[in-house]
Recover the amino acids of this structure.
């Protein structure tokens, strides 16, 4: 009965490659998020979707493209990976449109770019 | 000025004592305030939310909010070794959940 799940848990790849991370939530929430946590553990929002519609798009390189096929899924595709993309990426979900209520986080995907 | 500021620690507290974690924020329009706990290698999990001035208690945890001073704190009573983790303060400027850099707490047995 996992609430927010992500795949894969670990991702090791070469610079220049394209990769995707998938996220699914079974909480019935309308809003999903992608966060990046860097090596200093700073957690920062990247994107937010409400009912498949993009509502928050922070200053993220356009190599990052989120996609929400339905409100239970939010995927993150990254083109032309760079060393600086190495981080832990967390998916989260909440009921509210804005981030004003509890957000539930997935287990994270540790991305290492070599 | 950072949107959310926390002392990064590490903060070491003897077992059974009170741990006090502090956070200041810059956006006066923020309406929702959260404390998340993150164990090493794990995802953040919510431990407290607070929306109005004053204290909110939940078991051993008490969150305190002072909007005039733009200050939110978390007290952990009777600290246990299992409380050792990084505590993330989060505020919602413009409805966007914004985290501080976290305070690493170590409970010493």
């Amino acid at each position: 009965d996992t609430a927010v799940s992500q795949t894969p848990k670990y991702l090791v790849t070469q610079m220049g490659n394209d990769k995707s991370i998938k996220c699914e939530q079974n909480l019935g929430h309308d809003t999903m998020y992608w966060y990046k946590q860097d090596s200093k553990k700073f957690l920062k929002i990247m994107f937010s979707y409400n009912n498949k519609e993009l509502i928050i798009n922070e200053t993220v390189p356009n190599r990052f493209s989120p996609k929400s096929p339905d409100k239970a899924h939010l995927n993150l595709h990254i083109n032309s990976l760079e060393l600086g993309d190495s981080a832990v990426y967390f998916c989260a979900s909440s009921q509210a449109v804005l981030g004003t209520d509890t957000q539930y986080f997935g287990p994270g995907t540790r991305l290492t770019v070599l | 000025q950072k949107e959310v500021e926390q002392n990064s620690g590490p903060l070491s507290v003897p077992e059974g004592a009170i741990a006090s974690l502090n956070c200041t924020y810059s956006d006066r329009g923020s309406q929702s305030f959260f404390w998340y706990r993150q164990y090493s290698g794990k995802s953040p999990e919510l431990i407290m939310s607070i929306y109005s001035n004053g204290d909110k208690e939940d078991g051993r945890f008490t969150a305190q909010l002072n909007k005039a001073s733009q200050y939110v704190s978390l007290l952990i009573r009777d600290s246990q070794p299992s409380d050792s983790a990084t505590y993330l303060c989060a505020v919602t400027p413009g409805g966007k959940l914004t985290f501080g850099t976290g305070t690493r707490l170590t409970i010493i047995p």
In short: The radius of gyration of chain B is 13 Å. The mean pLDDT of chain B is 94. The first strand of chain B starts at residue 4 and ends at 6.
